[in-house]
Amino acid sequence: MSAHYLFLTTSTREPGHLGNTEWLAREAAAALPEGTRQTWHALARMALPPFVDQRHTTGTYAPPEGDMKTLLDATLAATDIVFVSPVYWYSIPSPLKTYLDHWSAWMRVPGLAFKEPMAAKTLRLVTTSGDRAKAQPMIDSVQLCAQFLHMRWGGALWGKGGPPGSVQNDTQALQAAQGFLSGTAA
Ligand SMILES: Cc1cc2nc3c(=O)[nH]c(=O)nc-3n(C[C@H](O)[C@H](O)[C@H](O)COP(=O)(O)O)c2cc1C
User: Fold this and answer.
1) Which helix (H) or strand (E) holds 93?
2) E-state strands within 92-142
3) Helix (H, G, I), strand (E, B) or coil at 9
4) Where are the alpha helices (DSSP H) in 18-107?
5) Which helix (H) or strand (E) holds 152?
6) Domain NADPH-dependent FMN reductase-like spans what residues (predicted)?
7) pTM for this prediction
């Protein structure tokens, strides 16, 4: 299977305002070998139904529909999944949390192989926040999610955020972005 990167952007900035995290992720994506397949979805612009915990009642879930089906299909089609997620309250923004909660449903859709194909994928995180130390709990949390599904952890790329345009001044982040997705980052 040739490389296919799925970028899930999760900033909740208003349409037309490119955030720091997506800007940094696009820098990293531009350094991928030419022709590498990329799919981008903006979770905050999608209709994501709230997750309902049915594990100990019906125990199963119907196959997802609408935008959730789009996301399931994109998730399974990818070899590499990149969460493009700013730090919100030491954690991930709610659209990404909702998407992740639905992984618990996708593990329980009769006839759907989810866990096994996920274990063949790599998960990475591109993030920005006011300072690096405050991003650590969120980075650890995303890494643990990868471990839970036996995914390869490709690491986190962090940049100093703030108002749009801030991360452009973080020269260390810009340098690290160059090899981040191909695994050659320092
Ligand atoms: C709801 C909310 C919560 C935030 N929480 C934190 C935080 O806990 N720690 C931090 O350093 N920055 C925090 N920030 C700042 C953002 O992480 C920072 O501005 C980031 O660069 C925004 O990413 P974006 O430009 O891609 O939208 C928060 C911002 C928002 C909107």
Assistant:
1) none
2) 122-129
3) strand
4) 20-30, 66-77, 94-106
5) strand 152-160
6) 11-151
7) 0.97
Which residue, chain included where needed, has tokens 């990149």? Answer: 82
Paired tokens of 140: 């650890």
Please give the class, per CATH, of domain 4-180. alpha beta
Residue 12 to residues 93, 121, 140, 184, Cα–Cα distance (Å):
8, 26, 22, 30
Considering only CA atoms, which residue is closest to atom 8 of ligand 1?
A: 89
Residue with tokens 């991003």: 135
C-alpha to C-alpha distance for 164 and 171, rounded to whole angstroms: 16
Rounded distance, CA 46 to CA 182, Å?
28
The pLDDT tens digits of the residues spanning 26-60 come to: 999 999 999 999 999 999 999 999 999 999 999 99
Q: Which atom of ligand 1 is nearest to the CA of 86?
A: 23
The amino acid sitting at 172 is: Q
Half-sphere exposure of 63 (CA within 13 A, CB side): 7
Q: Which atom of ligand 1 is nearest to the CA of 11?
A: 27
CA 148/CA 145 separation, integer angstroms: 5
Ligand 1 center to residue 94 CA distance, Å?
12
